[in-house]
Structure formats: C-alpha cells, structure tokens
Amino acid sequence: MDARRVRPEEDANDVAVEQAKDLLERLSRRGAPPLFVFDAGYDPVKLQRGLEGQRAHVLVRLHSNRAFYADPEDVEPRPVGRPRLHGKKFALPDPRT
C-alpha cells in the first residue's frame, strides 16, 4: 500500500517494520489478521521481533543456502572445553538432512 526508498543509512528490516505498523494502525481490527510476505533479503528474526505483539502474520522466504541447527544432544559433561552450542545440522540445499 505504501512504497518508499530505503536510504543507505537505513536498515531495510526496520523500514519494513515501520511500514507494517503504519498499515496496521490504518486497518480495521475486524476480520483475519493481515499477512505480510517478505523476500529472502529480509531478516525473519528482526521482522518477527519488530512486529511482536501486533495483530499480523509474517511469512519470509528463506535463502536456498540457509542452514539450521538443532539443540545439542545431552551427553555426559566434557571435562575440558566449551559446551556444545549446536546439534545436528539441517541444510536446505542438502536433501540428506
């Protein structure tokens, strides 16, 4: 509904959140919450945190090379070294995962 250029000193995610909040203020609270759809260049975490508490749904396309990690498995504590941060890897481009 609104379009504007993102200045070089601005963050595109912050601008998108600002525009979504402006639109939500103008919309009626009746009916289904609006769905905001973003391309892969946007950060899904920043968008979710920016719109937290708003009556809206957010869908963000992920880059095809994205990877996710499960929580680390509980194993006996290691006597030395840092505790594990990541568990098994789920990589979008790798069908074996």
Q: Shape, please?
A: elongated
Number of strands: 4
Question: Ranges with pLDDT <50 over ≥5 residues?
Answer: none
Indicate how many domains the architecture comprises.
1
Helix content: 10-25%
Radius of gyration, CA atoms, in whole angstroms? 19 Å
Arrangement of strands in the largest sheet: 1-2
In whole angstroms, how far apart are the ends?
39 Å
Assign the structural class, choosing from mainly alpha, mainly beta, alpha/beta, alpha+beta, or little secondary structure: alpha+beta
Helices and strands, with pairings:
Blueprint: H1 12-26, E1 35-38, H2 44-50, E2 57-60, E3 67-69, E4 89-91
Parallel strand pairs: 1-2
Antiparallel strand pairs: 3-4
Please supply descriptive tags for the structure shown above.
97 residues, alpha+beta, 2 helices, 4 strands, 14% strand, elongated
Structure description:
The chain is α+β, with helices and mostly antiparallel strands and 97 residues long. It has one domain. The chain is built from two helices and four strands; from the N terminus they run H-E-H-E-E-E. It has helices at residues 12-26, 44-50, and strands at 35-38, 57-60, 67-69, 89-91. The strands form two sheets. The protein has a two-stranded parallel sheet. Helix 2 (44-50) links the parallel strand 1 and strand 2 (57-60). The model has no long low-confidence stretch (mean pLDDT 90).
